[in-house]
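User: tokens in, sequence out, please.
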């Protein structure tokens, strides 16, 4: 609760206030919270000149009605919103909230809530560096502006220098806001805007001291994501010698604008909304948002609400699926009108183990120094090989390299690693196929992980030789590792809890051990327990790191196809994504290592930028199409209005059948057969006349029919429709099954693929 100072000069209102607090306290409603309040724009009273005036007056009228005009009570306008949503946020008691609900133009209100953050070789892995393709067609994203909603930016990073950048486009309306350790000369032709929003954090706790009151990043997350999207070329960037090379963003000539909404002191929806509101007003083309709200319906999800407004303006919103995998239904941002990105692995590993007999094994380590662990005895002994006792390990610490081998329980492996750290070994080798060991990233002792496949020869050597020795080589980088990509354990899986009828995530992009810029004030590595090391570049993992890859590709597509809608760009990304890894087998699921990944983990598959440039056909959608879906969901008029802000949409044609580039059908456990019908319309964005034939891979237990089976386009931009019928007739184990529909161009190069998922309704 906000506490006004008690050294009041006027006794009368003071008494009144005391009484009022007392009464409220008795009723248990004196507690204040920040509420986000949606208003009806069509009811704007024209006695006011601005929306802000109207909202302020709404708040003032509650204040004067109850407490007289001399007091500053809890009612405080935090933000007015006019772009991402229509309304305001304010600090209110429950009683005051009730009064707001009765005021003119009120639509809906809900409490402010916390947001969850989803914590460069990647451009080669995505084949962007070919002599033709998307980089060239888009001129590397020149003049596209990407708004990043995040933790701020470290403007001095090499990645944000503006060498080679041209003048800022005239349409840009943003600014470089001054603040703590941040002034306007820190923006340039690359970082063209930087603003910060923390009124919501302050409203939640008026005593809070904001430790970095500016757009400067103190966490590293925003610096990393924004440099992944559009960092400039930096030669010789590496993480302590690992992943060394030219660091650059996916769209190296695009512009960046940072909207800092996450502070060490808090991260709330009202600030996130304010950041997106400003980004839309400033004129960004793409919004990248590596965070989400869990467990909220679409009409109370700030990202769903704000991204609807963005989508109307043709702004592509790219978001992270979350890090709550591998269980089904853990995803956030599964919003029908934005792009939801899952995280995959990269074909890269670091470090080698060399045995005394000359055998060389490529392993995985990120120990941040060129430690000399050479020709030391290799110790393999049953008593200590579990590596689960600091006491036992300490006894042999100085004798050589310990081979740690035991259960494959990932928790145990993590503990083993900390025991090894604590015992200060000269070196250790872990045997593990647990990707989590690598996905967690950092290593603070001179250790290496090898796979169980490589383990037998090492154990055999250690057991059979009289004096086995080994060497660990650090700061080595190997690419082309197979299989890759695989979906990571942590990447959140669909179906989307907020609406399961659209297949989410949409696509997968690199998310594990991504090298990008970092803040020099936070440790990027540790050696032992006490030595902290900083680095201008860091390897981070998460769907937070996958999302900016997709945002960068969306920026390139925006540059290459300036007229395409957000739905068309998403469609191009989905229908050209690859379901195969670099062994030409289906992408694997590291959450369930024996299985291939389902589209509920990877969507259509790994993003393929060069193919997305020229998708052949696109599945487009208008804002009204999404509203038809909201109508079919039986949302109330007010719930729809919170999202659309405008009464110009109608519910004349409610429909679940959104023109989406993928299919998902659910069946009830006990039904023997179910029929689902879908109708889709594709737009020919190829060069001219073209004929496409349908090719279906049937999901097990279902029969999918497509009609017509041939689509003949006579000219560019022609639209044709087709029907899909999915007949489910019992699949023995009630499993999720999946297949696809590919429209293959006759005598041409395009193939337009849509994943199909058939799942029991029990998983929702
Ligand atoms: C009341 O609010 C006004 C303007 O918002 C401010 O200038 C004033 O200091 C506040 N008074 C108190 C007692 O908080
Ligand atoms: C901004 O800050 C930098 C570094 O502190 C300083 O060199 C520069 O002169 C400042 N620019 C302005 C316009 O104040
Ligand atoms: C939101 O975060 C703050 C800390 O930033 C915490 O104190 C509060 O309990 C959180 N609220 C919820 C609902 O999780
Ligand atoms: C292993 O442990 C047993 C019992 O604790 C002990 O007798 C034996 O000497 C140990 N072996 C080695 C190689 O340390
Ligand atoms: C099918 O489901 C059963 C249990 O429901 C599970 O044990 C099995 O692994 C699943 N198979 C596949 C291929 O997903
Ligand atoms: C349907 O099956 C799922 C798992 O197979 C189970 O969790 C769920 O309770 C079942 N629902 C009904 C209505 O039987």
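Assistant: Sequence out:
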């Amino acid at each position: 609760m906000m506490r006004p100072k008690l050294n009041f000069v006027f006794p009368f209102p003071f008494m009144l206030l005391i009484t009022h607090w007392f009464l409220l306290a008795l009723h248990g409603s004196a507690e204040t919270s920040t509420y986000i309040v949606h208003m009806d724009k069509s009811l704007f009273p024209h006695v006011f000149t601005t929306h802000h005036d109207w909202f302020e007056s709404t708040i003032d009228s509650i204040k004067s009605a109850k407490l007289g005009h001399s007091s500053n009570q809890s009612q405080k306008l935090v933000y007015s919103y006019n772009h991402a949503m229509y309304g305001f946020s304010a600090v209110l008691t429950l009683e005051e909230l009730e009064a707001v609900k009765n005021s003119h133009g009120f639509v809906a209100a809900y409490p402010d809530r916390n947001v969850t953050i989803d914590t460069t070789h990647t451009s080669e892995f995505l084949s962007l560096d070919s002599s033709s393709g998307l980089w060239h067609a888009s001129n590397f994203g020149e003049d596209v502006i990407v708004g990043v909603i995040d933790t701020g930016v470290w403007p001095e990073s090499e990645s944000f220098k503006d060498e080679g950048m041209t003048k800022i486009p005239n349409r840009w309306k943003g600014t470089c806001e001054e603040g703590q350790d941040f002034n306007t000369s820190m923006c340039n032709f690359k970082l063209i805007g930087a603003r910060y929003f923390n009124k919501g954090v302050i409203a939640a706790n008026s005593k809070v001291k904001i430790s970095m009151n500016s757009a400067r990043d103190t966490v590293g997350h925003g610096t990393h994501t924004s440099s992944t999207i559009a960092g400039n070329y930096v030669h010789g960037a590496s993480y302590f010698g690992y992943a060394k090379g030219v660091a650059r963003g996916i769209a190296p000539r695009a512009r960046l604008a940072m909207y800092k909404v996450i502070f060490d002191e808090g991260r709330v929806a009202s600030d996130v909304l304010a950041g997106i509101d400003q980004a839309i007003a400033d004129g960004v083309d793409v919004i990248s948002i590596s965070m989400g709200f869990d467990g909220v319906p679409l009409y109370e999800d700030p990202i769903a609400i704000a991204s609807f407004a963005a989508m109307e303006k043709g702004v592509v919103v790219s978001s992270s699926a979350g890090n709550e995998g591998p269980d089904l239904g853990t995803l956030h941002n599964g919003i029908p009108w934005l792009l939801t990105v899952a995280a995959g692995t990269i074909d890269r590993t670091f470090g080698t183990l060399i045995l005394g007999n000359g055998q060389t094994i490529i392993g995985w380590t990120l120990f941040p120094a060129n430690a000399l662990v050479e020709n030391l005895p290799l110790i393999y002994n049953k008593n200590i090989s579990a590596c689960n006792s600091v006491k036992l390990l300490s006894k042999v610490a100085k004798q050589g390299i310990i081979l740690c081998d035991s259960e494959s329980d990932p928790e145990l492996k993590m503990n083993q690693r900390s025991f090894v750290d604590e015992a200060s070994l000269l070196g250790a080798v872990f045997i593990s196929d647990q990707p989590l060991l690598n996905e967690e990233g950092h290593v603070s002792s001179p250790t290496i992980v090898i796979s169980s496949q490589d383990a037998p020869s090492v154990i055999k050597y250690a057991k059979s030789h009289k004096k086995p020795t080994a060497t660990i080589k650090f700061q080595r980088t190997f690419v082309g590792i197979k299989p890759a990509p695989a979906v990571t354990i942590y990447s959140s899986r669909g179906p989307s809890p907020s609406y399961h009828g659209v297949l989410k995530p949409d696509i997968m992009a690199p998310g594990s051990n991504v090298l990008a810029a970092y803040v020099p004030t936070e440790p990027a590595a540790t050696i032992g327990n006490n030595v902290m090391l900083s680095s201008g570049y860091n390897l981070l993992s998460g769907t937070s790191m996958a999302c900016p890859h997709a945002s960068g590709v969306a920026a390139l597509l925006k540059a290459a196809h300036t007229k395409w809608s957000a739905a068309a760009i998403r469609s191009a990304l989905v229908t050209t994504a690859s379901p195969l890894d670099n062994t030409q087998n289906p992408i694997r699921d590291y959450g369930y290592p024996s299985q291939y990944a389902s589209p509920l983990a990877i969507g259509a598959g790994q993003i393929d930028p060069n193919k997305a440039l020229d998708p052949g056909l696109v599945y487009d959608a208008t804002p009204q199409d999404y509203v038809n879906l909201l109508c079919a969901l039986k949302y109330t008029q007010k719930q729809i209005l919170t999202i659309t802000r405008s009464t110009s949409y109608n519910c004349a044609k409610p429909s679940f059948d959104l023109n989406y580039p993928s299919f998902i059908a659910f069946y009830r456990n006990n039904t023997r057969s179910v029929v689902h019908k879908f109708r889709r319309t594709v737009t020919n964005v190829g060069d001219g006349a073209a004929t496409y034939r349908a090719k279906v891979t049937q999901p097990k237990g279902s029969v999918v029919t497509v009609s017509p089976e041939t689509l003949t386009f006579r000219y560019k931009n022609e639209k044709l429709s087709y029907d899909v019928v999915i007949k489910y007739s019992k699949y023995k184990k009630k499993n999720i099954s999946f297949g696809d529909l590919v429209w293959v161009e006759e005598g041409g190069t395009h193939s337009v693929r849509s994943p199909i998922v058939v799942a029991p309704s029990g998983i929702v």
